[in-house]
Amino acid sequence: MRVKYILSAAVIVLFAQVVLGGMIAPAARYPHAGDTLRGSETPSLQDTADTAGQPAAARPTRRELRREARAAREQARRNAAFNALSQQERDSLFSAQVDSLIARKADSLDMHADSLRIARDSMAADTMRRDTVKKPRPAGAFLDDPISGKNTDSLVYDVRNKLVYIYNQGDVTYQNSNLKADFMRIDMNSKLVHAYGKPDSLDGKPIITKPEFSDGSASYQMDTITYNLDSKKAKIKGVATQQGDGWLVGGSVKKMPDNTINIENGKYTTCDETDHPHFYLAMTKAKVIPGKKVITGPAYLVMEDVPIYFLGIPEGFFPISSGPKSGLLMPTYGEEYSKGFFLRDLGYYFTLGDYADLAVRGGIYTLGSWEASAASRYIKRYKYSGSFNMEFSNVKTGEKGEPDYIKQNNFRVQWTHSQDPKANPGSTFSASVNFATSGYSKYSATNLNDILATQTNSSISYSKSWTGTPFSLSANMAISQNSQNQTLSITLPTVVFNVSRFYPFKRKEKVGKDRWYEKISMQYTGKMTNSVTTTESEIFSKKTVDNMKNGIEHSIPVSASFNLFNYINITPSANYTEKWYFKKVEYQWNPVTNQTDTLPTNYGFYRLYNYNFSVSSSTTLYGMYDFTKKRRDRKIQAIRHTITPTVGFSYAPDFSDPKYGYYLTRQTDSTGRFTTYSPYAVNAYGVPSSGRSMSMTFSLSQNLEMKVLSKRDTSGVKKIKLIDELRASGSYNFLADSMRLSTISLSFRTTLFKNFGINLSATLDPYRVSPQGIRYDKLFFPGRITSTGWSFGYTFKSREDKSTPAMNDITSIPPEYQNPFYDPYGQMDPVLRRQYMAQSYYDFSLPWNFGFNYAVNYSVSYVNNGTTGYRKNVTQTLGFNGSINLTPKTGITFQGGYDLKTNKLTTSSVSITRDLHCWQMSFSWIPFGYHKSWSFNIGVKAASLSDLKYDKSQSMYDNLY
């Protein structure tokens, strides 16, 4: 009976499993997403058969089944949307956010975590079983590179519409592009980024922040922007972007993929207040090629919101490249009373490769004068650099036949060259040439420095040393020119070959102390020169060639140094000098004309030599007074006095002895008086001295130092030099007939404080002079000062910063920045460069500075005045320059001098400069003197609009009439 009941229960359970078991199978409980989208909730017969052999599970309620089915369908829909994304999108920032959003949505539907995991596992397994024909086609990559970004407020993702919202100080970077804005919207479907600012306040004033966009080196500031991440095109409203030293402001702008910009209703200005510029060029349309040029359609000037239509242009072209480009150089215009109206500095600029350039300019005057110039610069890094400038002017003033008529040609040649020390170690070449005709500074110069220059010097030098040897070679060519008397002193060339000190008897392997002969040293110096002094009109004449002084000189000094009693240094020496000359000039008395005739020059090879011997001794004596014996905390710790006496003896034979043949005699007048002369005196290195000499030389040098307490020094004390050097020297010739004592030379040098010192030198004559101006053999003490000189200068300034050269900083203006357009090969930063674009940059951050220099010279000349026998000559010069700011934007610079002999000011100038933000105004005035003139200038600071200016001046040449 029991068995019967058991069998009946088994049959009932088996029947229920067959009929109802599929409804609780796993496939039915978690259907696949594709099946759910087709609405199939009933299992197939195949599924039922497959599960028939599985054990029975607890039957859920009908409500639970419906809830699980709804959750499965929602999960399937979300996973289908997720599978439609590309792999790049899945791996990007949004994939993690999609998962988190789905998880949060599932939680809101009260789904269990394990149910979601099982459903996703089932979904993945079923996806692998789906037919490939029905599988969605994977989308391409969303972007080529990932987007990175940050913000300070919130980042909102709209996954359904594929939109991203960024709030407050958003900063998004994609490839080389960067966008910063307080609001951004990124559309994933269209790949468009839209950004704009938000209301804010600055210093209590309401403002609207602006997005900032940069693409490579180009940067933009605008009101709104819509940017396509795919095509890299942008539509911009209210853009402001810096191009070179100017700003482009556009109402409506299109940015193209190559970064060119098309502008409608735009502005071009060099004023950095782009919201409301002080001036601008209003452009109806324009195209900008970054780093190259701006091309505009019809445009006109607007100043302080006032349009100036008559200054309009039908089209324009503005170069904005950072490097050099060939192009036209704009002229300046004006009027000079003596030359008429002028058009100056019109020319063309050529770029000669990467290492050189050339600027050719010219100018004409309505009264017949004209000028031309060529200037070139060259530079090769780590090799050399230099510049070459040549100017020519044809000056014509006045009417022909009138006393004031002037017609002359003037020219100037300037060349500078320097070699990098690393380019060729052991060898250097340099040049500094400044040669001009005497009339250039008077009639052709256009700046004050050239006008006032009366002495110019030029030199070209080369030197070579051989490493590891004592040999060295140097060569130099020099020209000194005086524009007042038109004289020229020319040296073409001077060559010096030198063998530095060596010890010929020193042993190669030293054993023990040096022997006395090992201390003997030798040197050799060989010199060759050719020089002449002439005038501009005779420089190419035969007379100049005949007057040239040349020769070769060899000098071999031999010396040694010994120590005596450990305190006295003894230095014996001998010197041999030989001169080679190639001409001599003799003189002969002519009884017919009763004067001395110069005989024709004799050319040949002439050898002259001389020698002398000397010995000197020196020692050093110290004396010190210690103030700390009683108290250790005294401010002055000690004073030390150092004395260095030197005594020497020298001997030289009489080379006027006839056996040498260096001197001859000639008659000087009809009374039969004769004099001695040397026919070789016309050569470069002179002749050996006449008369035997045995003299004693002496000198006394001393200095005074003080040691004081100092908290700044790590040792606690500091040394101060009270007297750097006080020196007296002279000589006494034992073989002289009379007046054996030489003049006494005195020198004094001290430093009062940092960068300020005093140098004083003087010469004392110990012998008396007759009223007829003749010295005679009678000593008197302390002697007569025959010459002395003293000079000093100092600069007072309100700051030490020299980082920015400026016209009003008298200590920091390098010569190259005297040219306001100096920019070698476009390497200067545009912001820094615009500071030099006015006539000169004025640094208003320097409140004041002042500098002066003073020099006094005293000398006597012996004359027959019937009283003292000599005349005193005193010259004093005082120069000064400086600057002072009257207001934060107005400054004055001045320079000049004072003649203490005539009690009059020398040529002086005053300049007033006013900073007008993006403009600068200046007025320069030379109030008196031959160079009396004035000039007024107002113009834009920036180089790109440097021709937008107004000049008015009165030339110094007007003072000729």
Structure description:
It contains twelve helices and 53 strands. It is mainly β. The N and C termini lie far apart (155 Å). Mean pLDDT is 78; it is low at 1-57, 91-140 and 813-839. It is 12% helix and 52% strand. It is elongated and about 150 Å long. The longest helix has 22 residues, at 62-83.
Attribute tags:
52% strand; 961 residues; 12% helix
- How many beta strands in the DSSP annotation? 53
**Strand proportion:** over 45%
User: Could you name the ranges where pLDDT drops below 50 across 5 or more consecutive residues?
Assistant: 1-57, 91-140, 813-839
Number of helices: 12
pLDDT averaged over residues: 78
Class by SSE composition: mainly beta
Query: Main sheet, how many strands, which sense, barrel?
Result: 31 strands, antiparallel
Overall geometric form: elongated
CA-CA gap between termini: 155 Å
How much helix is in the residues? 10-25%
Radius of gyration: 48 Å
